[in-house]
């Protein structure tokens, strides 16, 4: 089944999660990752590992992606903590890809989980989950839709209640969006986020897109048909424009990276340094 290049990256992410899961020092366990990745996911994984080894020889010694492993574990922990501590009964996952968190964790009774992504994703994902006899541990609803268009209407039609606070998960999405689309998405998100809502997202800064050090990777993404288009120099300020109080976290922080971040830690405020962020925010 054909997928867009951005859609195919969701299977690569699943392959990364499988590689981490099957490692002796795994940061997390996702038993659904390998079948959700499929051959295409592992083909991309091997190609990316070869590219990284050639371009950044000191970055890593195996096929695992340090950033994706750190990101997955960080979001696992942050999302579970937010749902429990804030007694949230709705989770909305934008650009769901091959995520399997509804199946991996025990969620509070009554939690409603909404997954949004293009129909092509669910055309592949749902048959795999059915074949695995996977059963979500919450009330899971898929919402096939394109986030570049009106996604609020299908989300609310599926049962999401904008009057109640929710947790929003935006993982692996912002990179691929034009700045105007990012603004439109955050504006729409704020319009359905009741006070007490919570959000977690990942993004890079603008230097990631322009630094000479990262140009081989940026050029590779473009050649793959999924160019990186957006970076935020100040993620907290970006979210604040739309009514959120945000806290950026860096994978080079030992408490976040858990010893997996392979690059030297750059001093805060140093200009021109490519940075990755894991952002938590409250409404």
What are the SSEs and their pairings?
Elements: H1 5-21, H2 33-55, H3 66-85, E1 90-94, H4 101-104, E2 112-117, H5 119-131, E3 139-144, H6 152-157, E4 167-170, H7 179-191, E5 198-204, H8 207-210, H9 215-223, H10 235-240, E6 245-249, H11 254-257, E7 276-282
Parallel strand pairs: 1-2, 1-4, 2-3, 4-5
Antiparallel strand pairs: 5-7, 6-7
Describe the protein in words:
42% of the residues lie in helices and 14% in strands. Strands 3-2-1-4-5-7-6 form a seven-stranded mixed β-sheet. The radius of gyration is 18 Å and the shape is globular. It is built from eleven helices and seven strands. α1 (5-21) packs across α2. α7 (179-191) links the parallel β4 and β5. The longest helix is centred in the first third of the chain and has 23 residues, at 33-55. By secondary structure, the chain is of the alpha/beta class. It has one domain (66-258, 270-282): Vaccinia Virus protein VP39 (Rossmann fold, 3-Layer(aba) Sandwich), CATH 3.40.50.
Supply database-style keywords.
7-stranded mixed beta sheet, single chain, 11 helices, alpha/beta
Low-pLDDT stretches: none
Assigned CATH superfamily: Vaccinia Virus protein VP39
Biggest beta sheet attributes: 7 strands, mixed
Shape: globular
What CATH first level would be assigned? Alpha Beta
Percent helix: 40-55%
- Order of adjacent strands in the largest pleated sheet: 3-2-1-4-5-7-6
Give me the CATH architecture, please.
3-Layer(aba) Sandwich
Strands, count: 7
Oligomer: single chain
CATH topology tier name: Rossmann fold
């Amino acid at each position: 089944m054909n997928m867009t290049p951005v859609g195919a990256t969701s299977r690569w992410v699943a392959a990364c999660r499988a590689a981490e899961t099957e490692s002796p020092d795994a940061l997390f366990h996702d038993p659904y990752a390998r079948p959700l990745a499929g051959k295409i996911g592992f083909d991309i994984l091997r190609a990316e590992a070869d590219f990284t080894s050639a371009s950044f020889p000191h970055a890593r010694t195996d096929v695992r992606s340090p950033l994706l492993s750190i990101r997955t574990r960080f979001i696992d922990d942050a999302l579970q903590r937010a749902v429990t501590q804030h007694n949230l009964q709705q989770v909305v996952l934008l650009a769901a890809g091959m995520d399997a968190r509804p199946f991996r964790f025990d969620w509070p009774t009554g939690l409603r989980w909404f997954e949004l992504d293009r129909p092509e994703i669910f055309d592949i994902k749902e048959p795999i989950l059915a074949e695995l006899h996977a059963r979500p541990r919450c009330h899971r609803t898929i919402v096939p839709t394109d986030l570049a268009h009106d996604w609020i209407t299908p989300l609310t039609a599926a049962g999401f209640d904008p009057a109640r606070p929710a947790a929003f998960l935006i993982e692996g999405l912002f990179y691929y969006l034009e700045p105007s689309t990012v603004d439109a998405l955050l504006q729409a998100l704020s319009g359905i986020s009741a006070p007490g809502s919570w959000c977690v997202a990942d993004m890079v800064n603008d230097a990631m897109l322009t630094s000479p050090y990262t140009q081989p990777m940026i050029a590779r993404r473009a050649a793959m048909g999924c160019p990186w288009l957006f970076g935020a120099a100040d993620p907290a300020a970006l979210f604040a424009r739309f009514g959120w109080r945000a806290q950026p976290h860096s994978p080079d922080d030992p408490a976040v990276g858990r010893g997996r971040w392979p690059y030297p830690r750059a001093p805060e405020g140093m200009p021109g340094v490519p940075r990755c962020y894991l952002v938590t925010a409250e409404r």
